[in-house]
Amino acid sequence: MKPVISGRSLMAVLTVLFSCFSCEIASRSTSDRTASAYVVESIQMPVGLNSEVGGIGFLPDGRLIACFHRGEVMTYAPDTKEWKLFAEGLHDPLGLLVISNKEVLVMQQPELTRIQDTDGDGQADLYETVMDKFGISGNYHEFNYGPVRDKAGNMFIALNTGSSGDKIRSQVRGELKTDGRDGDTGNRQMFSVVPFRGWVMKLTPAGELMPFAMGFRSPNGIGFDSEGRLLVADNQGDWVSTSSLYHVEEGKFYGHPASLVWKKDWHQGNPFFMPVSELNAMRTKAIVLFPQGIMANSPSQILCDTTRGKFGPFGGQLLVGEMNHKRIIRVMLETVDGALQGACLPFLDEGDLRMGNNRLAFAPDGSLWVGQTDHGWAGDEGIQRISFTGVTPMDVYTMKLTPVGFDLTFTRPVDTGNASDPAHYRLRHYYYDYYKKGPQEGVDDAIQLDVQTVKVTDIKISGDGRTVSLVLDKLKAGYVYELKLENIKSEDGRALEHPLICYTLNHLKSQDLSSAVK
Amino acid sequence: MSASHTIFRKGISGALLACCFFPLSTRINEKTTTVPAQKEVTTIALNAIPGLQYDEVRIVVKPGSRVKITLTNKDDMSHNLVITTPGKRLEVVHAAVKLGEKGPSLNYIPQSPDVLWSIPVLSPGQAGSITFTAPEKTGIYPYVCTFPGHGFSMYGAMYVMSAGELPELLKDENVPPARRKGNDTNDSHASPSVADHPYPLTPPYLYRAYMMDASPAAIAVRLTDNLAYCWDAGSCELRYVWEGGFVDNTGLWKGKPNSEAKVLGKIFYRNSVTQPLRTGSPDRIQQVEFRGYKLINRYPEFHYTVDGTDVYELIRPTEKGDGLIRTFTIPRGNEDVWFIGAPTDGMKFESTAGTWRKQTLLVPVSGIKNFSIVMTKREGRKP
């Protein structure tokens, strides 16, 4: 297959996986073992734009639409490479949802706004408040994310808690409840002193707003999986010390206590002073943990690959942005014991991808566009486009739990020589505690507890060479199983692209199922 | 959480603390860090500060001298410090990324001959130090935080030199670009940047922002090069009007705590009446809801409801630029409307409909479909 990059300026086109890679090599043959599966191209941004990207989407006519931290909403025509201003003056817009070529919903700090070009001159002239029924304390960290819309037309938004590193303003919007904060000063805990900070809210097509789920800290990622289930990627910090992917269901609590004060009929006072065991019993755990400093430090938007193969072999799986690494994460889920759980690994790592991968959207042609930001944190600015070249990467396709270990299915048949040697599977497990961090403890600290090496006792490789079944000497629920694959290659000699994968084991597969499988 | 976990954690924190807290006021300057005497220890206090940076981006030591660097973490994120061989900062940063699953347990410090000395990851408020003998070989030895994502902006240069001048900071490529403007870590808020956006700004235009003396849902509108006002989308009212410059969004745009769009002019009118536009009765505070705005020749026409009645308010400057023309449209109202100005406002109010009694305007229901109130400065009166 001819790569997407042909005919474009070599300078503008960057390769992902191999720095020595060039266009000539790519166009030679897909059997070339070093040919990249994906190429990354940096989009030229308008001069004078502070390109901290808050949201991106595609209009029905194929143009990109993006909102930026200083309040601009701009469109970009990929064919002519032309940027145009659509709207301006917004307060820290961090999400958008395209309605039509002339209309977009934007989530900004004070409200969800419907922005329309009603006179057809290409620039918005109508800014209507769709929903502003949530509190603002004026704390700089009270970011708002979304909206995302389900098949029934319900919209979901996520509201960040306030930061202990900032105050609240003398005038706030909404009822002020100081019980949502850890003491008078807030210490190091994120807080929720105005309504529904730390919540996911649901807005029905009829316009009814419902507090939906609570216990979030910095839910900068909200989206759906292939089955339409609502997911949130929350940033680690106090209480939950490693970043988490949650399956969000109505009425559930996900761990950060501040938001509990806005629960209906809440009578337990300041939740920061409740026994940790009690809070722990109330919370719903993550379906996937992103080990801190290993897989992610700050995950962002969740996007399901719905491109039906246009973007490569990972259809139906999830992509999640990451701020602190030059990385986009891939997540695969499965249902075990009635609950979702699964594994994460880098989808793209290093190479020409930048850091600060905050927002993701698929273009109609199946390429993935990535909006980046830094905003005082680790990151970068701008927009990059990632295209599938047609070359199937050598990667872990799925990692699935079995009653006795894991089944690893690869995108290509494995070299059975290497793959049948237990020495090539370095596996360890650990867990992260749920607890109230002390004021001297770093927000970024995440302590791995009970770190133990797990032995692989048996390996079976399927007839087609694509699935490797690992039998482990023990399997325990409540642990991250971190697998480092060493020297695993494809049958035709391709090196494994991403050798580190982390499976969050909340539920074991029952023995009944085990006998059924056997 | 079990007791053993707590101890484990404390154990780790303790291990990180080669603890040596310097008083907050300890700031080095480049002259005092150049200590010529052998055997004596040159002490250097570095701080990790908000914005992914060290407070000092250049330090100077003598070749072969004993040096003690203490890093205090005054940020709310975790940081380490790694001193590398000359020119190897980025290589070491990449090697730290490559540590993968081993990163956290190694404090993100790769094992490499290019790593000379290091201070492990410090939590906020913690301090750690390292004592070493400076290289005999003069040169520029980078120091950098290798916590994931930090190494591309959080670094500085240790100059090992026995004599001579440091290069001009402005042109020193060994310090982060953002710090080449001067060693002052405080940003200058003196003037807003000319190139704030990828297009020229011509009034009228607006910013939604946090602003003083308004709810957090405030809107700053620039009407002319000399006239601006603050509209409160919470209380649905004009809050204040000023002349001079517009707003400085520097802090707000940097995502700084306690920041707002700072008014760059002189406020000459402040509304002191709670919800001055009332329907049906002048004596009752009514429910308001903000519905958005439409741009008419780029002037925002605000849409809000007062007790459920739709009100549209378009605000334009007077021809002389000494006040505002506020045009109200209440298309479906079926009651009289009052507008209450305060005598202390320092403004002269006139209207195209209704009758004034002192500072209160009554517009009968017959006139509410469209009327304007013109507010101009009363000469010689202070607000």
List the helices and strands and how they pair.
The complex is a heterodimer of chains A (518) and B (383).
Chain A: E1 13-15, H1 23-28, E2 38-42, E3 53-58, E4 64-68, E5 73-77, E6 82-87, E7 95-100, E8 103-107, E9 112-116, E10 126-131, E11 144-149, E12 155-159, E13 199-203, E14 209-214, E15 221-224, E16 230-234, E17 239-240, E18 243-247, H2 276-282, E19 288-290, E20 299-304, E21 318-322, E22 327-336, E23 339-349, E24 357-362, E25 368-372, E26 382-388, E27 396-401, E28 405-410, H3 416-419, E29 425-432, E30 434-435, E31 448-454, E32 456-461, E33 467-472, E34 479-485, E35 500-505, H4 511-517
Antiparallel strand pairs in A: 1-2, 2-26, 3-4, 4-5, 5-6, 7-8, 8-9, 9-10, 11-12, 12-13, 13-14, 15-16, 16-18, 17-30, 18-19, 20-21, 21-22, 22-23, 23-35, 24-25, 25-26, 27-28, 28-33, 29-31, 29-34, 32-33, 34-35
Chain B: H1 3-16, H2 30-33, E1 41-49, E2 53-54, E3 58-61, E4 66-73, E5 79-84, H3 89-97, E6 115-122, E7 127-133, E8 139-144, E9 155-160, E10 205-209, E11 218-224, E12 227-232, E13 237-248, H4 250-253, E14 262-270, E15 277-279, E16 288-296, E17 299-306, E18 309-317, E19 323-329, E20 337-340, E21 347-351, E22 355-357, E23 360-363, E24 371-377
Parallel strand pairs in B: 1-4, 3-9
Antiparallel strand pairs in B: 1-2, 4-7, 5-6, 5-8, 8-9, 10-11, 11-12, 12-13, 13-14, 15-20, 16-17, 17-18, 18-19, 19-24, 20-23, 21-24, 22-23
Kindly summarize this structure in a few lines:
Chain A has 518 residues and is mainly beta. Helices cover 5% and strands 38% of the residues of chain A.
